[in-house]
Amino acid sequence: MSEMKTQLLKTAAKRLFAAFLLLTAIHVSAQPIPVSTDTDNDGLRDVDEVSVVIDVPAGPSDDFILSVTTGLTLEGGDSLLIRATGTVRADVSQGPSSGPNGLSTGPAFPPVQPDAPFLSLIGRIGSGEWFFVGSELLLDATEAGEIRLAVNEVPGSYANNSGSFTVELGRGLGTRPDDPDTDGDGVQDGDDGAPLDPLDTVDTDGDGVGNRVDPDDDNDGLFDSEEIGGTLVLPATGTPLQIPVYQFSDQGLFLQPAELPIFSATGIIADPAIDATSTPNGRSDLNTNGLVLTLPGAPLYSLLGRFAHGEWVRLGEAFQFGYASPVEITDRTYHLGDNTVSDWEVPLADGVFLDLPFTLDGPVLGAAVLRLEVWSTLEDNRVFLNGRFAGRLCANRNSSWTACEIPLASGLFRSGQNLIRIVAGNEQNPVEQLSTIDDFQIRAATIDFVPSHYRVIDLGTYHLGDAVIQAFEIPA
What we know:
3 helices, five-stranded mixed β-sheet, disordered N terminus, flat, 24 strands
């Protein structure tokens, strides 16, 4: 295990232990804890290092006002970040449901806080007035006391309610409240812009992401690679050839899936052996028969590049890595299966599998998403990219079009020709006697190469349970 992985595991374990200590202290303490408490004197309050998480139920309860204590007290001038998720219902059988922001309409009788939406999350400090909290509030206290939370219901009407809000109090930075320097870099957590990163201490824009891994340090909408840029001199010869690697600042260049760097090059190289010169675009007029080239098919002397140990690509005088817009795979509608369905857009089946070729002129940065629409996809219909399993079509058990998204790992793609194959699964419906293959339609397939919310974790197939089922891909 590398030293970095070991450090990350130790940090994670420390964070979990610290969370246990703080939550245990809150639940067993007979006295509320001041929000201003800073156990390790590192300049960060304990509640901002490890959040306090509580449930605020809507019922059922016979309480006139069902409220929950947080175990935290505030003084005038204190601030506290409160965030909430979850769903509550006003009546188990027929009442409306709501998130923490509440509903725009409510019953004729006023709720606990008449000025706040019905069923919203509300709070109060000590014996003060109730106030609206909602899904997120940065509370600036003007009075002292313990903070309590409640669901904004009509007083005395909690008996038939259900559900609860999960409420997080504090910033939840993940640092240890009993260790002033969580990442061990010599800078106290309160002064450390990246308190969980031992290689960084600066967070210019204060977004909680240290400059070392923040693609936009100053949060101006421009990637750092666009603003900083970089210049290097690449030699054409050497024994052995030493290729320099440019690093942005002294911490390296971190590219995000949506970050598409542009490379440009100028200059002339010369090969005295054949009295030839070349620009970064190379010499396509020179015969390369019998030569072993780094990138077969690229002109002799052309400038090449790659990320990490990825594929070499031709850069030439100008090249942009990645794809700023989706790549269209097909705009047609296809019918896969073994039946004829007269009322479908494509009645006759195109076969039991479909090959969709497409071409990429460079490597893929980050993950991608295959987007398409599916019609009546009932069974195990698999998707392969360049011969490797990539995922399954979304199940849509209706005769209507439904959007489907399948995350694709960057390692599945190739520079040049690529092939998506969609394979119809076996029909498992015992009532269906005329078909052995699932029949379905697909259309409007594209690949989006710049998503930010997907990360491919595992492409494996797993069988959970306690029975052996021979028909499964993984029987046991």
